[in-house]
Automatic annotation (TrEMBL):
<keyword id="KW-0847">Vitamin C</keyword>
<dbReference type="InterPro" id="IPR026992">
    <property type="entry name" value="DIOX_N"/>
</dbReference>
<dbReference type="Pfam" id="PF03171">
    <property type="entry name" value="2OG-FeII_Oxy"/>
</dbReference>
<feature type="domain" description="Fe2OG dioxygenase">
    <location>
        <begin position="109"/>
        <end position="197"/>
    </location>
</feature>
<keyword id="KW-0479">Metal-binding</keyword>
<dbReference type="GO" id="GO:0046872">
    <property type="term" value="F:metal ion binding"/>
</dbReference>
<dbReference type="GO" id="GO:0016491">
    <property type="term" value="F:oxidoreductase activity"/>
</dbReference>
<dbReference type="InterPro" id="IPR044861">
    <property type="entry name" value="IPNS-like_FE2OG_OXY"/>
</dbReference>
<keyword id="KW-0560">Oxidoreductase</keyword>
<dbReference type="InterPro" id="IPR050295">
    <property type="entry name" value="Plant_2OG-oxidoreductases"/>
</dbReference>
<dbReference type="GO" id="GO:0031418">
    <property type="term" value="F:L-ascorbic acid binding"/>
</dbReference>
<keyword id="KW-0408">Iron</keyword>
<dbReference type="InterPro" id="IPR027443">
    <property type="entry name" value="IPNS-like_sf"/>
</dbReference>
<dbReference type="InterPro" id="IPR005123">
    <property type="entry name" value="Oxoglu/Fe-dep_dioxygenase_dom"/>
</dbReference>
<dbReference type="Pfam" id="PF14226">
    <property type="entry name" value="DIOX_N"/>
</dbReference>
<protein>
    <submittedName>
        <fullName>1-aminocyclopropane-1-carboxylate oxidase-like protein</fullName>
    </submittedName>
</protein>
<comment type="similarity">
    <text>Belongs to the iron/ascorbate-dependent oxidoreductase family.</text>
</comment>
Length: 250
């Protein structure tokens, strides 16, 4: 985990000129980096650089900085193994076979993204935000950080700081509303690893569970690719993306 954070730090610290080749725009480009900013939103500035590399089903990597490729391969494999165990546990906790979710989600072709965030110390942290409130796409996100906190989740209408133990994985498996704040003391680096179904696989409420509970589905199904597009669209900005999928009561 430390080596992965180090490798990402070395990437972000490359001269701007050397990162330009990865400044692409499409959602599913295998490698992309940039600085997010949106001067239109409420007097608040986004204060973050990001690097997103798709590591599964096809492993992509960077040839610089030296060492990134090797460590990200190892990190992505081990992180995926942890995510697999968590999904197996969730399946079992729902009274399903351990491999239920991984089977129906075509996990062997599942999408894994190494999404690194770089938040430099900010002179006026109250006027900036690292990442505005959002929900993650995917089945389970594992997040690590360089022992600097900043992730906040909405709980009982309050923003609550996630005070993770050093070296811990923060696991996000519910569609929770969260954001990242910035600080004025030191650079914070986090690596969020969303693990999703295969892109062409629709995620739907589990039919066996609906039947067991005698309930109708509360959400429509959608492929993971469409869901990711929806999440990135202006219509979904500052909106929990599951809200778009909720079946309207009639
Ligand atoms: C994300 C995210 C929070 C953080 O990348 O989706 O929520 O703590 N990051 O950097
Ligand atoms: Ni997130």
């Amino acid at each position: 985990m430390k080596e992965m954070i180090d490798a990402c730090r070395r990437f972000f610290e490359l001269p701007e000129e050397e990162k330009k080749e990865f400044h692409t725009k499409n959602l599913l480009d295998p490698i992309k980096c940039g600085t997010s900013f949106n001067v239109a939103i409420d007097k608040v500035r986004l204060w973050r650089d990001y690097l997103k590399v798709i590591a599964h089903p096809k492993f992509n990597s960077l040839y610089k900085p030296a060492g990134y490729s090797e460590v990200s391969l190892e990190f992505s494999k081990r992180t995926r193994a942890v995510a697999t165990e968590i999904l197996n546990g969730i399946s079992e906790s729902l009274g399903l076979e351990a491999d239920y979710i991984t089977k129906v989600m075509n996990w062997h072709r599942g999408c894994q993204i190494l999404a690194a965030n770089y938040y430099p110390a900010c002179p006026q942290p109250d006027l900036a935000i690292g990442i505005p409130p959002h929900t993650d796409h995917g089945l389970v996100t594992l997040l690590i950080q360089n022992d600097m906190c900043g992730l906040e989740v909405k709980h009982n209408d309050q923003w609550v700081l996630v005070n993770a133990a050093p070296g811990a994985f923060i696991v996000n498996y519910k569609s929770i509303w969260h954001r990242a704040t910035v600080n004025n003391t030191a650079t914070r680096i986090s690596i969020a690893v969303p693990h999703g179904p295969a892109l062409d696989t629709p995620a739907v409420p589990i039919p066996e569970l609906l039947e067991k509970e005698g309930e109708k589905a509360k959400y429509i199904g959608m492929t993971y690719e469409k869901f990711m597009e929806l999440q990135a669209s202006p219509a979904a900005y500052m909106m929990p993306c599951l809200d778009h999928l909720r079946v309207k009561d009639n």
